[in-house]
Amino acid sequence: MKLLVVEDDATTGTYIARGLREEGHTVDLVTEGREGLFQATSGSYDVLIVDRMLPEVDGLTLVKTLRGAGNTTPVLFLTAMGSVDDRISGLNAGGDDYLVKPFAFGELSARVAALARRPQAIEQETVLRAGDLEMHLITRKVTRAGQNIDLLPREFALLEHLLRRKGRVQTRTMLLEAVWDISFDPMTNVVETHVSRLRAKVDKPFERELIQTVRGAGYRIDG
Question: I need a surface site. Which of 123, 163, 166, 173 has the fewest CB within 10 A?
Answer without folding.
Answer: 123
